[in-house]
Design brief:
The protein is mainly beta. It has one domain. It is built from no helices and 12 strands. Strands 2, 3, 4, 5, 6, 7, 8, 9 and 12 form a 9-stranded mixed sheet that branches.
């Protein structure tokens, strides 16, 4: 919902001061099963915006502490990657590196990713704006304060289903 208030103009009602979107743009369903010291996972990823897209991933991750990698295979894109486990850089920042090959494009490459435990970007934003008018004798108010705008969205919903053998 884009309104005049989000374009820098003054809000005309309380409804223009907030925007809450409860429809997630990403839905992840992950199935996990431990088989002989290896976690086998099937990730089903559904993306709602900007276009509807679907991805499936098969993930193999050794659970022993000496193994520091995991293998990901995407059958739709014919992409295979080996990724390191998250390496702590600071208390809140992690680094992950990997190498992959795409069989459709016959391309091999590497990538890296910085992640944080503080949540994703754009979880919520509150913007405050205060301005003081200096031109006297005009119709502009001398003091104008916008108490703030709230933009919140539920960007990602993730469900992890783990199958364990009962003893």
């Amino acid at each position: 919902m884009e309104s005049a208030a989000t374009n820098g103009e003054e809000a005309s009602s309380w409804d223009e001061l907030y925007n809450i979107n409860l429809i997630p743009s990403e839905l992840f369903v992950k199935f996990r099963k431990e088989v002989q010291g290896i976690r086998v996972g099937l990730n089903m990823e559904f993306y709602n915006t900007p276009i509807n897209e679907y991805q499936a991933k098969l993930v193999l991750k050794p659970l022993t502490p000496e193994w520091k990698w995991k293998l990901i295979y995407e059958p739709i894109h014919q992409d295979v990657r080996i990724l390191s486990k998250k390496i702590p850089v600071t208390k809140f920042l992690n680094l992950q590196v990997g190498v992959g090959h795409n069989f459709q494009m016959h391309a091999t490459g590497w990538k890296w990713k910085l992640t944080t435990c503080l949540g994703g970007d754009g979880v919520s934003r509150i913007r405050n704006k205060t301005s003081v008018g200096l031109a006297l004798g005009t119709d502009e108010p001398l003091f104008n304060m916008q108490s703030g705008r709230l933009q919140a969205s539920l960007d990602r919903v993730e469900a992890i289903l783990t199958h364990t053998d009962s003893v």
